[in-house]
Each structure stands twice: as structure tokens, then as C-alpha cells.
Amino acid sequence: MQTHIEQPQRPAEGQGLPERQRWLVMGCILLGILLSNLDSAIANIALPTLVRELGTSDAAVVWVVNGYQLAVAVCLLPAAALGEIVGHKRIYAIGLVLFLIGSVCCASAPSLSFLVAARVLQGVGGACLAALGPALVRSIYPRSLIARGFASIALVVAMSGALGPTVAALILSVAAWPWLFLVNVPACVVAIPLFLAVAPRGQGVARPFDLSGALLNAIALGLLVLGVDILGHDTGRAIAMLAVGAVFLMGLVWHQSRRAAPLLPLDLLRIPVIALSGATSVCSYAAQIIAYISVPFLLQTLLHRSAVETGLLVTPWPLLVAVAAPIAGRLSARYPAAVLGSVGLAVLACGLVSLAMLPASPGDLDIAIRMAVCGAGFGFFQTPNNTTMMTSGPVARSGAAGGLVAVARTVGWCLGSSLVTMLFQLNVADRTTKCLAVAAAFAAAGAVVSLARGLTASGARVPTRS
Question: Which homologous superfamily does the CATH classification assign to the domain defined by 18-210?
């Protein structure tokens, strides 16, 4: 007798999956996003250990971080395009497999060059997870609940970035550095077969992959990311790389403007609410990364807190993101994303200003409250903004929209990191305070840009009907 195994079906637009199946798929999506974001932060702590264990230099070992970040940056848009062509499920599953293989290779790396190559492979997998996760969320949730799915992603992204150094420190305190990567293996081994079993079958769009656009994208973003990375210690070469990267970026825009479904989603950026939401996202993530880099210096150098105390005092930020993101997700079905986003970023700006104005000897509670205000503002903004970016374009371009969300986050982080580097290089007095003031300015600018979405009809609120 022949046994028929029923495959998970692709849900009709706007209906989503049954609740149990939806939670299983969502668990796999969140796990993949958690691993990819955690790994981007976790390796920083291991760099001094890797210098000793692998017998290499400080300058060379930085490529353990750079290789991963570079691979993620250049692969986001190609992964999103491939997801639209062959199906989101397939590319997301490939991302999980590549991340698993990369983690095993990292843990068994006999040399620095092997480890960097394995990190690049991990980064390719991480790009697939970051780009296709939001597109999958759009397909598995009913339209009335879709903002809750993006709230979960916002929470995981915030928590993974904040907890990365702490997790790394805990692992290194009890185990050797390969365990930083081996901890990914059990999660991937569980997630891959579960995701293949429960995720809905996706339908691709028959069109060729834009190889020339992918190459231009890799060169442009690669040079820009590397230029930002070396800005602090090789200014001349960094400026040259940024200039050449900008030229290639303009070439990419010209090349993509001639295509109906471009790799660089210019068609989506022509939709005003998506373009404004992307600009808002860049501003917000620039503010976030500036604060994440400068606050530890403020706490440890100026306020003389220990590393452990610093970690605890920073924790209210991600915790309040966890509280605010679901609330914003529920409110976004009833209130305009433009207003919710502006309120959130205005609160973030106020929190950053309050951190910049800390007294000379503040109490721990005073610091924690100001960090909590920042987290509440950021969490309140993020969910409505990402939901708007993902749902304001055609369903067939969900993959491209997911790639755009991830690229906006990456651009914001690169911009913020470069500004911190330049401010620290100037060696001005109270440089951490000035960094927080710049971060507050970005958040305030984001609030203004977000409010401008209210002038577009499609930016009113997340649609609740198909």
C-alpha cells in the first residue's frame, strides 16, 4: 500500500497558516534570525583568544568579524532575489544548512584563513536568513496579525545584539573558543528538518537571476562596508574605498533602473511610504549603533563601572524593546505607522539626550531608567516601521522587501559606526557625550521622516484585508 505524505500548503494571501503550524514555522524563523544576529556579535569577544590560540596578529584576526559582516552585506539582495525566483522556503532552508556547515567548519578550523573562509560561509547563510525571514512572516500570518510577527523579529534582533557579548563571555569562561560556534549546531539540526516539514510550499517567479547586478552589488557594498571598517586606522585608504564604492553604487542604480524586477528594489523605493520607511529605519539603526558603541565607554571610562556592571546597566534597553515591540504590533493595526514610529523615535531621542546629560556621579537606577526609555522608544518604532515596509508593496516582491529591511538596518549600522569612529579619532573632550548627542539627532530626524509618511495614503496603517 502506498503512503501519501501531505506537504504543507502555501496559504492564500491574507489568510495565513493555522495557529499551531504558524507557531512552528515562526519558531524556526526566529531561531535562524537569532543565530545569525548573535553570531555577528559573539565573535568580537573571542578575538584576543583567537590571537593567542591561532598564533596570528590583531590586524589579521579582525577578519573573523569582517568576513562575516561583508558576506552578509553583499548577499542580502541576491538572496532576496533568489527567494522570489525559486521560493522563499527553499532559500531560507539553504541558509540554515549553510549556517550549520559554516558553524561546524568554524569550530574545526585549523588556521585563521580556514576560520575566515568558514565565517564567510556562515555570513552567506546568515544573509539568506535575514533577507527571507520577513518575507516568510508575511506569508504565514493573517493580515490582521502580521504586525505581531514583525514585533517578534524586532525583539529577537534587539535581544541578540545586546546579549551577544554576554553569551560569548559565559561560553569562554567554561569552554574553549570552538564552542562559540558549536552551540549553533544543535539548534540548526532541530530547525532544518522541522522547517522543511511545516513551512508552506512557496511559489517562485520565472525570471533569470541578475548576475551582473549581483556583481555590481557585491563590489559596491563590499567596498563601502570595508571602507567604514578601516576608517579609524587607515583613513586615506578608507576614503578611497568609500569613493570607489560610491561610484559602483551609482553604477548599480543606473544598471537596475532599466529592469522590471531589479535586484536593488528601485521599484519598491518608488513607493513613497516604503522609501520614507527605509530612510526612517536607517536613521533609527544609526542612532542605535552609536549608542551601543559609545555607552559602554561612557559607563566604564567616565563613570568607572565594571564590565559586569556595564552589561547589567545596558540590559534595560533590550528588555524594554521586548515589552514595547508587541504593544506597538497590536496598536499598528489601528493607528497610523507614521504616528507610532514618530512617537517611538521621539522617545528614543529623549532617552539618548537624557543619557548625554547624566550627572557626574549618577546612581545605577538613574542610568537604568534612561536606558529603559531608549529601549521603549526603539521597540515602539521598529514594529510598525518594518510592517509598513513589508506590506506596502506587491506580494510577489516580499523577498525584495525583506532584503530592503535588512539592507536599511545594515546601512544604518555602517553609517553610525563610521560616525563613532570619526568622533573618537578627533579625540575631542566628552566624545561619548557628543556621540550620544549625534545619536539623538538621528533619532529626531527619523521621527520627522516617519511623520512625513502620514502624507501618503498607503502609510496610514497596516491593512487588515486582502
Answer: MFS general substrate transporter like domains (1.20.1250.20)
